[in-house]
Design a protein that fits this description.
Elements (H helix, E strand, L loop, with lengths): L1 H11 L3 E3 L3 H18 L6 E2 L6 E2 L21 H26 L4 H12 L7 H5 L1 H6 L2 H11 L4 H18 L2 H20 L3 H12 L10 H20 L1 H12 L8 H4 L6 H9 L14 H16 L6 H17 L5 H6 L15 H30 L5 H25 L14 H22 L5 H27 L4 E3 L8 H6 L8 E4 L37 H6 L27 H4 L2 E7 L10 E4 L2 E4 L5 E3 L4 E21 L9 E9 L4 E7 L12 H4 L9 E6 L7 E24 L5 E11 L4 E4 L16 E5 L2 E5 L7 E4 L1 E4 L2 H8 L12 E4 L19 E7 L3 E8 L3 E8 L4 E5 L2 E3 L2 E3 L3 E6 L2 E9 L2 H29 L1
Parallel strand pairs: 5-6, 20-21
Antiparallel strand pairs: 1-4, 2-3, 6-18, 7-8, 9-15, 10-14, 10-15, 11-12, 11-14, 13-14, 15-16, 17-18, 19-24, 22-23, 23-29, 24-28, 25-26, 25-29, 27-28
Length: about 950
């Protein structure tokens, strides 16, 4: 609890909620929507609020059956989400502590294991902020406890315990994480089956002495852990079947039904990056780091060496966890080892990307080895202490206390240096990995020295108190630094969770079941703004808008292709695909068919969608680079797109600049404002930018200017003999200004200037707007896309061609899926009018008999009841027609016409169609969720079986 308060008390006690990134834009909005449905007595089967409709239960990562999400029933939604995000930082250390104690480790050793794992490179970075993987992974220690007890305790209680411990990660819905938990537990159970217990070893020795051979490996008790692990896995999947089967149905139709090797290996550490990520995780990371507390790593190494010297008496689990750590390290290297190429051909395994996430096994294994190392170190000095207890410890105590205080001071100064607190200019600011590594080395040396010297104490109470302090310092100092740098960007006041964007408030005046919107932006937009301009991704769901966009890793493949082969944010192109540019073109009918009445986008819709930002302090930069190079005397322009801000931040570097003295002007920036003014600013050598190879030995010896604030570093050559650096400068514009373009001129005589990134920052809304020079899309037709509202650079466009949510046609044509896609995207040689013709994917002889041509003037279709899981439409036409409903075609939707079941036709590539005879009809559509229904039956039977086993275990225990 002390460690938790130190890490997050700064936010909790100030009323800030650490909900950001994926949690803010994805899980929090949709969990809130789902639990609202449950509170109103409606099953969360389908949602029309994102992606033009999607099976809500298939969004398995929402974890609606996971107990920690049930808090949405009783607490304000942002409080419930905060508990979900932070729970692993309390529970993972506690569970790891309990498991280490189960193995016979001492209290301090177990505490070391808990803190080293709970505050490691797995949790302190972006993956910890995501919270879904960490909620799944934190249950592994409890599962291992159940497997340990399976050998020596009653079978049924341990089976039930293991089932509960594995069901919980499965219910979180993060398949990659619960699969890793299951694989580690299965390997551990196999290890227990092959390794004899202490009693079995004694029996074997006794039988050897009496010349009686026994085969202990044939005993049932040896294989009980493996039996328990296998049965627990089956039962856990049975409990979660209601959501797993629904998810599998969606996955088969999604953009993730298979992935390429490049996508599979995306997020691998290079060997050098893995080492640097351990040394300086603040500067070298993916969504995890390889960081484990150096104290824990040193003790893990000691445990391995100690076990090698005592092979006959050492715990075989040391070898197991060493093998896990080595295997995890190889997997984290991904494509940089041959091993990962073989993994790509393993079914199920090959569906998950980002090999660096094997930091889970890496950090857990090292933490447990550290616990063994702690106890081994204590055992080494135990005999020596008995001899020395009568000697005076006063001098030794003073020395150790001084060392501890000095180490704590170094840790405090390290923390302040990284957080740019210079203490009246006396403390140098840490801006790069080398300085960070130097602080870390000094601090780690102090901690190790304190632990080593304290082992000589004869007074047990003194020794324990000092070791607790050293342990807390060694395990928590660096995590506190990392959390202080990465997590503040997620902190929000409670009001942010109930404040809709201004564009959202404008759109709420229109009936959502008649007007869809398409929010054309993704992560990083207005997340921390006090008065956000708009809500992006799934954030619109909180306020009832029906969004064509959204955020879902299992986005339907057809839907992605229709929008231009977009990725799971419905905006960016998928890997290997060009950016979609025809979606807003006159020939495209995709948005028309989806009832897209409004598009919300940046005022310059030619600009690319905002991508996930690279954060430096409060400034957000685009991950892609401008990469503009200015030779002496040349100029370039950056499109400002009339974006608003009061500070311009630029990332630059110089080349051939060693002769430039400190403070020499190197570039002139002319910012052209929307109201015709020009603001001039200057970049100076050594203050705003510097030589890219400044730290190379031959350059450092002669360069005449200092290091400017460093933005990032990378290898300067193939051998990484020096670090290449990029620098950033923050230029105040004095007031909130709308910038149309920025003209940059290199004013030097010989140095080249590279412009890497630029962003406008608005301190009022705490909003960063990256500036780019990407190729423009075709100009929008103002007659089709009139602007109806604008909010500080965000515009709302109305689509004058949008189709209604339901309409009738009197003409149908049989096509295959590819031809239907070409026609709705405007890429076919055949003309297509969606209000006149239905494109039905069927044989020509299966088409309904229709009169053809335009629908009769008296024909009408109107929605009379609209709910998430069902809708009713009243139609009237003097001739046979096809009712087209602008709702996503998906298996499980059933239709009735006047109470009689009828077929739903796959129409216009994405939509639902129903053939109707002449006359007036009531058409009812309902989502039956057959996969979820069948899964619910399996789940119910599994729960009944578990209840029966629990009752039987209780009754037999009494007798």
């Amino acid at each position: 609890m002390l460690a938790f308060c130190a890490a997050f008390g700064w936010a909790i006690f100030r009323g800030r909620f650490l909900i950001g990134g994926d949690v803010f834009f994805y899980t929090y909005p949709l969990r809130t929507v789902a639990w609202r449905m449950i509170r109103h007595g409606e099953l969360p089967l389908w949602t029309p609020l994102v992606l033009s409709g999607f099976p809500l239960l298939a969004m398995v990562q929402l974890g609606l059956a996971y107990p920690l999400t049930w808090l949405h029933l009783f607490l304000p939604d942002h409080w419930a989400e905060e508990i979900y995000v932070l729970a692993p930082f309390l529970l993972a250390p506690a569970f790891t502590y309990a498991y280490a104690r189960e193995l016979g480790r001492s209290r301090l050793a177990s505490l070391l294991a808990g803190l080293a794992y709970g505050y490691s490179g797995l949790t302190t970075n972006a993956l910890g902020m995501n919270a879904i993987p960490t909620n799944a992974m934190m249950w592994l220690p409890l599962l291992l406890i159940a497997l340990e007890r399976a050998r020596t305790r009653r079978l049924l209680p341990t089976l039930l315990g293991a089932t509960i411990a594995y069901t919980l990660p499965v219910l979180t819905g993060h398949a990659q994480s619960f699969l890793l938990v299951g694989l580690v537990a299965g390997a551990y159970a196999l290890c227990l089956a092959l390794v004899p217990t202490a009693d079995e070893i004694e029996q074997a020795r006794a039988s050897t002495a009496t010349n009686k051979r026994t085969h202990s490996w044939l005993k049932r008790s040896r294989w009980r852990p493996l039996f328990v692990a296998a049965c627990a896995g089956v039962l856990s999947f049975g409990v979660a079947a209601f959501q797993l089967l629904e998810t599998l149905r969606a996955a088969r139709r999604s953009i993730r039904h298979s992935i390429t090797y490049d996508f599979f290996s995306q997020g691998s550490f290079t060997p050098s990056a893995a080492i640097l990520s351990f040394i300086a995780p603040l500067y070298h990371y993916i969504d995890v780091t390889t960081y484990v507390a150096p104290l824990a790593c040193a003790l893990a190494l000691y445990a391995v060496l100690w076990a090698m010297r005592r092979r006959e008496t050492s715990d075989p689990r040391i070898c197991f966890w060493l093998a896990v750590a080595v295997g995890a390290l190889l997997f984290m290297l991904g494509e940089h080892t041959p091993l990962y190429h073989f993994a790509y051909y393993i079914p199920i395994i090959n569906l998950f990307r980002i090999p660096s996430r094997h930091a889970f096994e890496w950090t857990f294994a090292l933490s447990l080895l550290a616990a063994y190392g702690w106890d081994a170190l204590r055992a080494t000095y135990a005999a020596r202490q008995r001899i020395e207890t009568e000697a005076s410890d006063r001098r030794r105590s003073f020395v150790v206390a001084a060392l501890l205080a000095l180490t704590a001071l170094v840790g405090a100064l390290w923390f302040l240096s990284v957080n740019r607190v210079s203490i009246f200019g006396l403390l140098p600011v840490t801006q790069h990995g080398r300085a960070y590594g130097a602080w870390k080395f000094i601090f780690t040396a102090g901690v190790l020295l304190v632990v080593w010297r304290t082992q000589h104490f004869g007074v047990a109470l003194w020794r324990k108190q000092v070791l607790v302090c050293a342990l807390l310092l060694g395990c928590m100092c660096e995590p506190l630094i990392l959390i202080s740098q990465w997590w503040p960007g997620t902190a929000k006041p409670a009001a942010r969770f109930t404040t809709p964007g201004r564009a959202t408030r404008y759109l709420q005046q229109f009936a959502p079941e008649q007007h869809r919107v398409y929010v054309h932006a993704n992560l990083g937009v207005d997340e921390n703004a006090v008065a956000p301009r708009f809500d992006v991704l799934d954030g619109t769901a909180l306020y009832g808008l029906h969004n064509v966009g959204g955020y879902e890793s299992l986005m339907l493949e057809r839907y992605s292709r229709a929008l231009g082969d977009v990725d799971y944010d419905a905006v960016r192109p998928r890997a290997g695909h060009a950016p979609p540019r025809e979606l807003f073109a006159p020939e495209s009918h995709v948005l028309d068919l989806l009832n897209t009445s409004f598009v919300v986008a940046f005022s310059d819709l030619d600009a690319p969608p905002v991508e996930l930002l690279t954060k430096r302090e409060q400034f957000g930069f685009a991950q892609s680079d401008l990469a503009l190079e200015l030779q002496p005397g040349t100029s370039t322009e950056i499109n400002g797109a009339d974006n608003t801000g009061d500070t311009l931040a630029v990332v630059t570097s110089l080349a051939n600049s060693v002769a430039l003295a400190q403070g020499t002007p190197v570039a002139r920036l002319r910012l052209h404002t929307a109201d015709g003014r020009i603001i001039e600013r200057t970049l100076r050598a050594g203050l705003d930018t510097s030589e890219w190879a400044h730290e190379r030995a031959d350059v450092r010896a002669v360069v005449k200017h200092a290091l400017a604030p460093i933005f990032d570093t990378q290898a300067g050559d193939a051998t990484d003999s020096f670090r290449a650096q990029r620098y950033w400068a923050r230029l105040s514009l004095d007031a909130r200004t709308s910038v149309s373009k920025i003209e940059i001129t290199n004013t030097t005589q010989a140095a080249a200037l590279a412009i890497w990134k630029a962003t406008l920052y608005d301190s009022t809304d705490k909003r960063s707007t990256p500036l780019t020079n990407n190729a423009a899309r075709p100009s929008l037709d103002p007659a089709r896309w009139p602007k109806v509202a604008e909010f500080d650079g965000v515009i709302v466009l109305r689509n004058t061609r949008a189709c209604p949510r339901a309409w009738l046609v009197a003409e149908a044509e049989a096509v295959d899926g590819e031809e239907a896609l070409r026609r709705i995207r405007g890429a076919s040689t055949h003309e297509f009018d969606p209000r006149r013709t239905a494109l039905i994917e069927a044989r020509a002889d299966e088409l309904p008999q229709l009169p053809g041509g335009a629908v009769a003037p008296a024909s009408d279709a109107r929605i009379i009841n609209y709910a998430a899981n069902k809708l009713m439409i009243e139609t009237s036409a003097p001739t046979p027609t096809v009712l087209i409903v602008s709702e996503i075609f998906y298996p499980g939707w059933e239709a009735k016409v006047d109470g009689r079941a009828t077929q739903i036709l796959l129409t216009d590539y994405l939509l639902r169609g129903v053939a109707l005879p002449a006359g007036t009809h009531i058409v009812e559509m309902r989502y039956a969720a057959p996969a979820a229904r069948h899964g619910a039956l399996i789940s119910a039977l599994t729960l009944l079986l578990l209840c029966a086993l629990a009752i039987y275990a209780w009754l037999t225990a009494k007798t």
